[in-house]
Amino acid sequence: MHQNPHTKRRTRSLSSALAAVAVVVGLGLGxxxxxxxxxxxxERGPAPTNASIEAVRGPYAVSETTVSSxxxxxxxxGTIYYPTxxxxxxxxxxxxxxxxxxxxSSIAWLGPRLASQGFVVFTIDTNTTLDQPDSxxxxxxxxxxxxxxxxxxxxRVDATRLGVMGHSMGGGGSLEAAKSRPxxxxxxxxxxxxxxxxxxxxxTPTLIVGADxxxxxxxxxxxxxxxxxxxxxxxxxxxxxxxxSHFSPNTSNTTIAKYSISxxxxxxxxxxxxxxxxxxxxxxxxxxxxxxxxxxxxS
Length: 299
Description:
Blueprint: H1 5-26, H2 35-39, H3 50-54, E1 62-67, E2 78-83, E3 91-97, H4 110-115, E4 119-124, H5 133-149, E5 157-167, H6 169-180, E6 186-190, E7 206-211, H7 223-228, E8 236-241, H8 254-268, E9 288-293
Parallel strand pairs: 3-4, 3-5, 5-6, 6-7, 7-8
Antiparallel strand pairs: 1-2, 2-4, 8-9
Helix pairs in contact: 5-6
């Protein structure tokens, strides 16, 4: 049976096209298993699981260094916790402020807990333990500037990917810091206190953590209005802890860690692998009284 010349040409063209595809795949120019990581150069660590974000320690071994108050200006020194390995390149960083009358020891547990997930974490002391939120906000920014410009670990930090956290007046301070520096990638105020209730200026993705039993910064007059007065277009969330007090963020807390890690990973590392823990919104549980927010916007 004779083939039509046009059919022959089409067959040859198809064969050539298939051969070209084979060559491309053979040369490794087609999709590769590592393509997902290449899409996001900031991705750090293995794919997360519920167990991995609830764990007391993440995949990275952690080292720490003490920063004397005598060697810095603008804040009171502190402790830097950082992944020991340099094989993954630089990491995003977070400065954490204690609350009124508190020292860095009151928020120290967050240092190794977050650093072991792939962040450089600076738990700071404030200039005085009585500093107000606006001062604590400035001190958080001074600490980040020291961390990225002068610290012994500055080579491990990506200065474009920074966040702030804080407890009580330090939480109010983290809102002040985000207001002053819109380039911050994430803010996580923990049982925050501030006389300013409205934050329409914020452009930083913000997770506010309140406590149902807080009598010092009651959620009805602090955490809830802070959240409600963030721009509705912002990536924002409100997590209210169940059976918790104002001081719940001062000791190791799995719920705080789980959602803080997810928030920081999603917005500082742009790591969409963590969206599964933020969307759909977490449901009330033994540890969660309420959760409000929006699913993270995809960039």
